Amino acid sequence: MDLRKFYMKHVKENEFHYFFYDFIKNINIKPKGTFGYIEQDDYDFEIFDDESAIAKFKELCQPEMKFNNSDDVCWFYLITYYLYKRGYEIKEFPRILARPYSDPIKFTYNEIRSKILSNGGGFNGTVPFRDRRALINDLTFQQKNLSLELDDSIEKLFVAISNRQAFFNDMSTNEKLASISNLIENMLKVDGKFIKLDYSKICFDYISDDDIKRYRKKLNCFRHGSNESINERKTYSDEQKKFLIDYGLIIVKTIRYLTKQ
């Protein structure tokens, strides 16, 4: 998904994020290895799904990020808008996605640094990079109100995963499992609630609603970046992960068939 096109399609004048409209509309990007500028329509701010958007947000918040380039600033505006429209809120900073700063540094440096100091971290008023990275990596993203369904994107994600297209095959095993888990959630979630399907219509008694709940619970560790989740991933062998991928593809195709009926 191209986040700039997503923004231009959905942003409304009464939304806080409309403040960045002119900047996002008129931005030009200087690609690596060239000397001239290209029109923004030729440049994609691409993400794959919600999980990759969250990962990109955390990347933008790293201590090394200075936002010296207009494309980095644009990424910050677009990522916060996308996650806001998807109903996400960061537990530790509940207002940042809904009302991001025009200068991202005010959040990525000032607010993060202040949070660490207020929690008793740092030393003599200084905050080491390692403390900032630890806070950023452990940010809690909560999806509260899904304000925009992404039917088009869900369909594209289904095609990419179920047909094992290059985009999916190029992922690591952990990324594949996270993407399958995200897709199942998006396919089953309607108006913020999970629907129940009659899987026995095509699966006999081999797949049930409870089976899918257990499967999604097992894959939760692949969707989060906490130390606990990372350690849990390590308990699975490569063969077990491959099984979970194959099993997940069956579940995805089953859900797609039943929801299209």
What does this structure look like?
With 261 residues, the protein is mostly helical. It contains 13 helices and four strands. The protein has helices spanning 3-10, 21-26, 50-60, 70-85, 105-118, 129-137, 151-162, 166-169, 173-188, 200-203, 209-219, 227-233, 238-260, and strands at 88-90, 141-143, 189-190, 193-194. Helix 3 (50-60) crosses helix 4 (70-85), helix 7 (151-162) crosses helix 9 and helix 9 (173-188) runs parallel beside helix 13. The longest helix is centred in the last third of the chain and has 23 residues, at 238-260. The model is unreliable at 32-42 and 147-151 (pLDDT under 50).
How would you describe this structure in keywords?
13 helices; 54% helix; 261 residues; two-stranded antiparallel sheet; globular; mainly alpha
List the helices and strands and how they pair.
Layout: H1 3-10, H2 21-26, H3 50-60, H4 70-85, E1 88-90, H5 105-118, H6 129-137, E2 141-143, H7 151-162, H8 166-169, H9 173-188, E3 189-190, E4 193-194, H10 200-203, H11 209-219, H12 227-233, H13 238-260
Antiparallel strand pairs: 1-2, 3-4
Helix pairs in contact: 1-4, 3-4, 7-9, 9-13
